[in-house]
């Protein structure tokens, strides 16, 4: 699931990230079926859920962006996944204040916490693995660097209608304590048909990356609904160990 979410973050189109949030609202919930290619057949292995809730502290109001991924019970004996990704962001800009990651993947355990300081252009990182030892570091970042989850939501707030087929742009994301530079290409509009949602016109975006762990035999593509919400309707990924997709099966609070 780490590879799936890593692929997802790289699809984030960097045009217009500074504009005020008019798309992502509290109460939204998106549910995806995660499928993997096994012996030439796409097989549903897990469910991915993305939720947005408003939270208030004594000093501010933030949006809590939460993403969970879990294999279905019948697959747990093969490779059990229980992942949690969270970001607390400014509701107007979707810029992150705090990011958390807590993953269990086939016995692999990792917890991360990032505290963003854009004034100093740093992230205070706390990381622990199975042994429980916490390692703290300060990671320098650029002024437009975001975490994986907030980047996914910022994607939907951009005016992709201004893009032309073939346009290539870049963004910066901090993941695994490393700031990554990635390019994406806008391909154009395309109609797709989903079992649960029917025929949908989407913006088609292609990932272009030098990351070896994301370079499979096929293309990495994300389809965003060509409307005001720009929901990630279908994500196709190809990595060295295989290929698969995430398919949107339900949406609430849109």
Automatic annotation (TrEMBL):
<dbReference type="InterPro" id="IPR021457">
    <property type="entry name" value="DUF3108"/>
</dbReference>
<protein>
    <recommendedName>
        <fullName>DUF3108 domain-containing protein</fullName>
    </recommendedName>
</protein>
<dbReference type="Pfam" id="PF11306">
    <property type="entry name" value="DUF3108"/>
</dbReference>
